[in-house]
Specification:
The chain is built from 19 helices and 31 strands. An eight-stranded mixed sheet has the order 6-7-5-4-8-9-11-10, sandwiched between helices. An eight-stranded mixed sheet has the order 17-18-16-26-27-28-25-29, sandwiched between helices. The protein has a six-stranded mixed sheet with strand order 20-13-12-24-31-30. By secondary structure, it is an alpha/beta fold. Helix content is 27%, strand content 25%. It binds flavin-adenine dinucleotide and S-adenosylmethionine. Flavin-adenine dinucleotide binds next to α8, β14, β25, β29 and α17.
Length: 672
């Protein structure tokens, strides 16, 4: 049978035992580590080769250190590095370890083959082991001080899509003759682009092609006495003689700068951003114009986060897949009350869509835990979340101060700090980092502060929506319904935290509520609550042959909110282009690439979630925090570029639309 055209599902490792009883790969006909022992090799060749067993080790006294590895295999190098980091009193505060792997092993294999003294660490890793699906899988260990980023897929495809600054590089593919893809000049060049000046690489192989490939990529190679019966091992330092292009490496947050941020907006996005920064030890002030969090577009009792499959595993599919994983990571441990994970049934709206959806199963292959075709439609990974309780949980931290009834009207920069002003021009807060999570208000706030020429340089439009909640007993046909249903509309059961908000006085008769939604109303087409209920009822009737919903139940509760959507339907997540210097020479600026644009320092935007705030808020918050601190990006750069707010400015410059309003940019109070 022809394999599906888009198969995020990877073929797992085919482990066997080599002649000496050590783990080996059938596919590559090679053993995973030296016959003399995997742990010994990890220490002598990789940790030793990269200066991590020296006193002091290369990570000593540092805030953060990044190891990049080709070939995660059975994770012995990782476990040995983690153990050495733990044992070192001078270790860096945070260790990032990024590893590329095309054929992941199973969690059980990790455990079975972990060296005895690393079993405890292997067990901690095994509990979070991801499904073998293409893409990046972040795993936080050791109370969030060790971050493993598993990059599943072919190293040659994925390395160019990573964004990180490596201090140490472990080159550990199978033998070059059996696994040439892992030692190609193209891969070495991609690794060089990810290396800090002075980064040290290590390998067990001293094959000539490897030495030459590394030298051509800018490394100086030396051969050291070998280990485990091998005459020599390789060590290399990255010090290219050529000048590197700007903006290739992510910049670390300056050590001397306080890790203090102001987040504007306490909807799902602002709460997620504050949470992600607080998790990294930042002090965060959250300013919210309304009387309480989750009162703007997030003011629904609940919503559905879900994976969106597609025929070609498109950008949205990859983002929502990563979004579901990030959501699980970001939820507090006791989250049953506010989140209910179960597959949702994604049903076609009509026969044509049914055919399209049926076709997906031939073109895209995903593990059943993520998406599965059934006669009724696709069962996809999903969670029903109680919006308010989720915001409250994310904002609940000694590092976060929430200030409601606090409207930001303008932003000023003095070269190092941002000041947020209220409508009367008084200072509300100051910090070196600002995060705008103010949804629809974001473009106006930026334009009012002279940071963009006009609001349409970061276009967001309002999409009003209405949903209704009703006690489940009013629709007995749905008693059988375990999972959420969605298609042209949706119906879902509210999690307990949402029910409590609907009826503060405990009512044992009514603990089971359904949410039915939702309308999409653009400017000028606002529906009355009655019209919205009729619309949502009709959408649901198209989804299910169940007896119709009651027409006017007295217990019906109406909810209205406004989504903020960008023109291309993708959110904005990242820093803004510094437009003043670009607009001084728009023609030259139009020839630049996204990564070449100058950025406003210390100012990030996370807005425009459209109808996917629940699915994407945690992922984008994690991504933004990584961008701010310069740690490895948890999503591939093609996804990050698609979300980059500067894409709009670049598009306008390329289309020669720099004109209107740009005269106001001359006074932009920012140094780049
Ligand atoms: C009817 C409906 C149903 C939906 N269903 C789903 C669903 O099932 N799944 C899903 O994923 N998404 C759903 N959504 C979308 C989702 O709710 C949004 O994407 C999400 O809530 C957006 O969150 P946010 O924090 O970006 O924006 P908001 O919740 O709008 O938060 C922005 C906050 O910023 C504050 N603010 C703005 N300007 C300022 C300022 N100048 N100073 C201080 N504070 C300011 C606002 O007061 C507001 O609280 C739905 C939306 C609606 C309306
Ligand atoms: C020698 S093993 C790695 C051992 C590992 N570092 C450890 O500590 O256990 C080589 C690994 O490279 C992986 N690999 C081979 N070709 C690859 C490719 N093109 N891209 C990514 N990984 C690849 C293999 O699946 C295998 O797991």
């Amino acid at each position: 049978m022809k394999p599906p055209a888009h198969s995020p599902l990877l073929t797992e490792a085919d482990l066997t035992l080599g002649p000496g009883g050590q783990p080996a790969s059938r596919r590559y006909g090679d053993i995973y580590a030296s016959r003399a022992g995997a742990l010994g090799q990890a220490r002598a060749v990789y940790l030793g080769g990269c200066g991590l067993l020296d006193t002091p080790a290369r990570w000593a006294g540092r805030r953060q250190f990044t190891v990049l590895e080709t070939g995660f295999g059975l994770g012995v190098n990782f476990l040995a590095t983690w153990a050495a980091w733990r044992a070192d009193p001078q270790r860096c505060d945070r260790l990032d370890y990024v590893s590329l792997e095309l054929h992941p092993v199973r969690a059980a294999d990790l455990l079975a083959h972990a060296p005895r003294e690393l079993q405890e660490l292997a067990a901690a890793l095994a509990t979070q082991w991801p499904l073998p699906v293409c893409g990046l899988h972040p795993i936080a260990l050791d109370a969030g001080r060790v971050h493993l980023l598993l990059a599943f897929g072919a190293a040659e495809d994925l390395a160019p899509k990573l964004k990180l600054a490596a201090d140490a590089i472990y080159l550990d593919g199978f033998a070059p003759a059996r696994n040439p893809q892992m030692w190609s000049p193209t891969l070495f060049r991609a690794l060089a682009r990810l290396s800090k000046p002075g980064a040290v690489a290590a390998s067990y192989t001293v094959a000539h092609a490897v030495q030459h490939g590394l030298e051509d990529a800018g490394f100086t190679v030396t051969l050291q006495p070998g280990w485990g019966g091998k005459r020599q091992r390789l060590q290399a330092t990255f010090n290219p003689i050529w000048k590197r292009t700007r903006h290739t490496l992510p910049a670390a947050w300056p050590e001397a700068q306080p890790r203090h941020a102001v987040v504007i907006g306490a909807g799902l996005t602002g709460a997620a951003c504050a949470h992600a920064l607080a998790q990294r030890g930042w002090t965060v002030d959250v300013l919210e114009a309304d009387t309480r969090p989750a009162s703007g577009g997030s003011a629904m009792p609940a919503g559905l986060a879900h994976l969106q499959p597609s025929a070609d595993d498109n950008l949205l599919s990859r983002l929502t897949r990563a979004g579901m994983a990030a959501l699980r990571r970001a939820l507090p441990p006791q989250a049953q009350d506010l989140a209910r994970f179960s597959p949702a049934l994604l049903t076609p709206a009509d026969a044509a869509e049914a055919q399209r959806m049926r076709d997906w199963q031939r073109s895209v292959r995903l593990p059943p835990q993520m998406a599965q075709w059934t006669e009724a439609g696709w069962l996809v990974d999903s969670a029903v979340l109680a919006n308010q309780a989720l915001c409250a949980a994310w904002l609940e931290s000694p590092h976060i101060t929430l200030r409601c009834n606090t409207q930001a009207a303008a932003l000023q920069h003095d070269g190092s700090l941002w000041t947020v002003l209220d409508p009367a021009g008084r200072c509300l807060a100051r910090a070196p980092q600002l995060v705008l999570a103010s949804a629809l208000q974001t473009p106006q706030l930026l334009a009012a502060s002279g940071l963009i020429p006009a609001a349409d340089w970061l276009p967001l439009h309002a999409l009003r929506g209405q949903a209704q909640a009703l006690p489940a007993r009013l629709w007995p046909a749905l008693h059988e319904l375990e999972q959420p249903w969605m298609g042209s509309g949706y119906v879902l059961r509210l999690p307990p935290a949402a029910v409590r908000l609907l009826q503060p006085a405990a009512d044992p008769q009514n603990t089971d509520w359904l949410l039915i939604g939702a309308t999409f109303e653009s400017d000028g087409s606002a529906l009355t609550p009655e019209q919205a209920w009729a619309h949502n009822r009709a959408s649901l009737a198209a989804l299910t042959p169940q007896p119709p919903l009651p027409q006017h139940p007295a217990a019906l509760r109406h909810f209205i909110g406004t989504r903020a959507a960008s023109a291309d339907r993708l959110p904005y997540c990242g820093s803004l282009a510094h437009l003043a210097p670009l607009l001084a020479d728009p023609q030259r600026a139009a020839g630049k690439q996204l990564h070449e644009l100058p950025r406003l320092p210390g100012l990030a935007v996370c807005a425009g979630m459209g109808s996917r705030g629940l699915t994407l808020a945690a992922l984008l918050a994690e991504t933004l925090a990584a961008r701010i601190e310069g740690t490895p990006l948890p999503i591939e750069t093609d996804l990050a570029d698609a979300l980059d707010p500067a894409r709009v400015a670049l598009r306008r410059l390329r289309q020669g639309q720099a004109g209107a309003g740009t005269d106001r940019m001359g006074s932009a109070p920012v140094d780049s």
